[in-house]
Amino acid sequence: LEEDWSEALEYVREEYTGKPERIRQFLLAYPAVVRLAVGKSRVIRANEAALELLEIRNRARFLGYRDPDVVTDDNIESIVSALVCLYEGGQHWESELAMRSRSGEQIWLQNRSVDTSTGRPASSIVVALADVTHVRQRNEAMAELVRAKDEFIANVSHELRTPLTAIIGLTAEMLSNPLMSDEERTELLDVVVGQADEMSNIVDDLLVASRAEMGTVTVEITTVDLQEELQATVDGIGMTIEFPPSAPDPVRADPRRVRQILRNLLTNAQRYGGPKRRIITGSLTDRVWLEVRDNGPGIPEDTASRIFEPYVTGNTRVHGSVGLGLAVARQLAELMGGTLDYERSAAETVFRLVLPMDLSRAPILASHSDVV
């Protein structure tokens, strides 16, 4: 583009007569002045690339004085920087402008401007534009990832510190109290074992998450009795949940990984779900499915689509959530040839795990459980 900002510059000088070093504060404080100044700038010429980038359909209507409404809350700081540079006699500047495409999507344009005027200042400014939306989005995504990982590290520290503090405190008490009865000692040891198991579970999730990024997670496929693994997991967590009326068909999977998935799903329901928790199962053709349901409030809509991403947690009511459990559970399910999905159905939060049926052990005709 080639633009003429000479009238805009004169207008700013007329409006502002204060100290030169305060011009930026003045313009930011009076956006109406910025809009009027922009309305006095003109587009002299534009090449085809600029018209295409800016989605301009009518070159004749685009040339000439600008529409002041081009100044928005998103780009006012960039426009103020340009006006300040001209006011101070600068010859070139760079900025990024936030704009809206015809479809309503926000795009970011890198603006590199050079004042090539030979007579009247700011009367011939050459502007080079480049679409840097993808760069901006990538940087924002990286910043969000860094923020999420920082929060993740803090939450992991909190999650590990809680059982670790209990283990240290209880073992210290057993060592320092020779008068403790065998019954009391056994009771404290049970608590220590439970806290150690909690730490072990957190570490297991961390290992799967890190190995998944490197592509080194392994599974050992064999015949798995889902009912047996489900009962063991529920007993280990110590939660109350309604079981299905009949046992699910056997599956082809890794029993250790299945327990890890079930633990994460059941712990999720216990921590964040409602008081009514239940499990339903069924099978279809060569697949067996298991649903963990609860009547809690569910996952916020703005988070639901990302709930299986690492470091994302769908509930802020419980402090210290690591945000890895569901991501790890889905990764393991897919490694075993299955799936794990979330939906909100009939006022219930539903996590649905699907695994390959062990056809050598299942009935000839796949059964159907009650489907809700």
Order of helices and strands: EHHHEHHEHEEEHHEHEHEEHHEE
**Average residue pLDDT:** 87
State the separation between the terminal residues, measured CA to CA: 62 Å
DSSP summary, beta strand count: 12
> Biggest β-sheet, characterized?
6 strands, antiparallel
Structural class: alpha+beta
Short description:
With 372 residues, the chain is of the alpha+beta class. Helix content is 45%, strand content 20%.
List the helices and strands and how they pair.
Layout: E1 2-4, H1 6-15, H2 23-29, H3 31-38, E2 42-45, H4 48-53, H5 59-62, E3 64-65, H6 76-87, E4 92-100, E5 106-115, E6 125-131, H7 133-176, H8 182-214, E7 222-224, H9 226-237, E8 251-253, H10 255-272, E9 277-284, E10 287-294, H11 301-304, H12 325-335, E11 339-345, E12 348-356
Antiparallel strand pairs: 1-2, 1-6, 2-3, 4-5, 5-6, 7-8, 9-10, 10-12, 11-12
Structure description:
The protein is 45% helix and 20% strand. The protein is of the alpha+beta class and 372 residues long. Strands 3-2-1-6-5-4 form a 6-stranded antiparallel sheet, with helices on both faces. The chain has a 4-stranded antiparallel sheet with strand order 9-10-12-11. It has a two-stranded antiparallel ribbon with strand order 7-8. Helix 2 packs antiparallel against helix 6. The longest helix is centred in the middle third of the chain and has 44 residues, at 133-176. The two termini are 62 Å apart. 25% of the residues are buried. Mean pLDDT is 87; it is low at 364-372.
